[in-house]
Amino acid sequence: MNEWFLIIVYVTLKPELLGGERIETGYTPIDISLSLTQFLLSEFVPGAGFVLGLVDIIWGIFGPSQWDAFLVQIEQLINQRIEEFARNQAISRLEGLSNLYQIYAESFREWEADPTNPALREEMRIQFNDMNSALTTAIPLLAVQNYQVPLLSVYVQAANLHLSVLRDVSVFGQRWGFDAATINSRYNDLTRLIGNYTDYAVRWYNTGLERVSGPDSRDWVRYNQFRRELTLTVLDIVALFPNYDSRRYPIRTVSQLTREIYTNPVLENFDGSFRGSAQGIERSIRSPHLMDILNSITIYTDAHRGYYYWSGHQIMASPVGFSGPEFTFPLYGTMGNAAPQQRIVAQLGQGVYRTLSSTFYRRPFNIGINNQQLSVLDGTEFAYGTSSNLPSAVYRKSGTLDSLDEIPPQNNNVPPRQGFSHRLSHVSMRRSGSSSSVSIIRAPKFSWIHRSAEFNNIIASDSITQIPAVKGNKLFNVSVISGPGFTGGDLVSLNSSGNNIQNRGYIEVPIHFPSTSTRYRVRVRYASVTPIHLNVNWGNSSIFSNTVPATATSLGGSTIKSFWLFSKCLCFYIFIRSYSRCSKFLWDCRSDNRQIWIYSSYCNT
After folding, report:
1. Nearest residue to 301 via CA among 309, 289, 290
2. Superkingdom of this entry's organism (predicted)?
3. Is the C-alpha dihedral spanning 524, 530, 536, 542 positive or negative?
4. Which residues lie closer than 8 Å to 145 by C-beta, 6 or more apart?
5. How would you class 366 by CB atoms within 10 Å of its CB: exposed for 0-12, middle for 13-18, buried for 19 or more?
6. DSSP states along 564-585
7. What are the contacts of 122-131 at 24+ separation with CB within 8 A?
8. Structural domains of the chain ordered from first start
9. Nearest in space to 429 (alpha carbons), one of 603, 213, 586, 281
10. Distance between CA atoms of 154 and 143, rounded to whole angstroms?
11. Is the CB of residue 157 less than 8 Å from the CB of residue 73?
12. At 566, is the pLDDT very low, low, confident or very high (cuts 50, 70, 90)?
């Protein structure tokens, strides 16, 4: 019987157009959620700036129509209409929270400008109590029986607001005049609700995903859209909930989302009506893997009765931090030779942020080898994320099928080449048929990773820096497994075979230290069903070697409550002669014939 472990490692610093630009104001649920995620990733610091930021993004600009759009988005995905009473109740509660929070934010701004004013301190105590009470009452009403899935994205918005308010009192409560017992009680509420809200969101996301799954290709279209859109509107936000813990993350925290999302296979009027099973389409997506850096795509061209199309391609990539040799993936599709192969360089600017594809569909008119149905791609433009006008790369020609329609920018106040939210991370292919088949399908499938997942692992000198384990390399006796939904990416499973060090799984993570002489501390966030022995090394030096306790009796369907934080009261120094030098952390673990799951982060405080 297998048992699993999830370990999360931290290192803590001890202070001593494309033919014309697409610019539009985005107020769809996806636009708003991407803007919120960007804000949480970049501005996660307690204070009036954070409070007013939430007002500017959501709580000060939303009316009933915007809240209704969140409900409609999921209703359409799962084909379930919320009854009028439940709909009106949810929207009225959200409207009430919005009005209250605007008053709270203005009071916060006034208090921060004059923090010793007794009247303003009292006003903040009143406003906090009112806001906390309203949220405590409203959020259960956004979990109406039978409507948990269609209400999920607004539930997460309200949960995020509640956690932010509880963090405020944990950080500023003493200055507002609350006693220590009240502050500690509200902090306990904060840590409890981080777990409750996270587990609720993941549970109902999985329920909804299961509801839209089905056996054929048309079902897969809806399945993939639900997965993509609710990753953006639910899971990405939930993945950042732990950062609200003000005692574990007292300063700015840099997080990264390494999960991938997928635009639909590139076909003419793609609706899933082509032949094929949902399982077959899903198999053409990469299995869980370490993050890598897309360097280039070599595209091959075939032709049928004068119609030229993308027949196959090969990907070249590098490990994170460019810390190893470039590697080539196996051929996707077929190696056509109707035209010279074309190499698209992906590593320009900030990578490819947009594709504009030209699709071609030809219906058969007669019977015979020369009259097949043809569903192919005959050109794509690849646009680079950049602050300058870096020319696009074009395979044969540009088209009108725009990836930004499915994955929009995170900032609509600047050109998309600057405000993009994701970059191209991989290209696979949905392929069926050969030159003698009735139907030929060659449909490239684009995978996208959030722009917060940086090419390097850089430990900032003024922030807590979290680095997922999938940004490591040089694995031994290790596998990558799907994440549980609340980690922002996949997990690394370190396999172990007793005490034999030669059989113990390990992973090496390349790290860049910008400081020439800095003191660091290690923290480990992990989950385990048995005690495990954890080793963390830097180069040939051991940082710590400790046995840490079990955290759960089972990790099947693991929840955020399965994770504990192990803090080793041991600091170490890093001396680096060159800023460009890449140092490496290595950790392994030992337990009797067990597996170890790792989601690793390095923190500076």
Report:
1. 309
2. Bacteria
3. positive
4. none
5. exposed
6. EEEEEEEEEEEE-S-TT-EEEE
7. 122/177, 124/172, 124/176, 125/176, 125/177, 125/178, 127/103, 128/104, 128/165, 128/168, 128/169, 128/173, 128/176, 130/100, 130/104, 131/100, 131/101, 131/104, 131/165
8. 29-249 (1.20.190.10), 260-450 (2.100.10.10), 464-567 (2.60.120.260)
9. 281
10. 10
11. no
12. low
Contact 134, 164 (CB under 8 A): no
Query: Residue 7's pLDDT band (boundaries 50, 70, 90)?
Result: very low
Backbone φ/ψ region at 438: left (φ over 0), alpha (ψ -120 to 50), beta:
alpha
Helix (H, G, I), strand (E, B) or coil at 51: helix
Candidate from 4-13, 132-141, 171-180, 441-450 with smallest mean pLDDT: 4-13
* Residue 181 vs residues 46, 120, 174, 184, 503: alpha-carbon distances, Å: 21, 21, 10, 5, 50
Residue 582 has pLDDT above 50, yes or no: no
Taking CA atoms, 477 is separated from 162, 471, 550, in Å, by 42, 17, 22
Q: Is the pTM of this model over 0.85?
A: yes
- Residues 17-57: tens digit of each pLDDT: 344 444 344 579 999 999 999 999 998 899 999 999 999 99
Give the residue, 179 or 474, on which the prediction is more confident.
179
* CA distance readout (Å), 531 to 36, 484, 553, 597: 38, 21, 11, 13
Query: In sequence order, what DSSP letters do the residues of 134-147 get, joined into one string?
Result: HHHHHHHHTS-TT-
Secondary element (H or E) of residue 180: helix 180-212
Distance CA 44, CA 39 (A): 7
Q: What are phi and psi of 227, to 5 degrees?
A: -60, -45
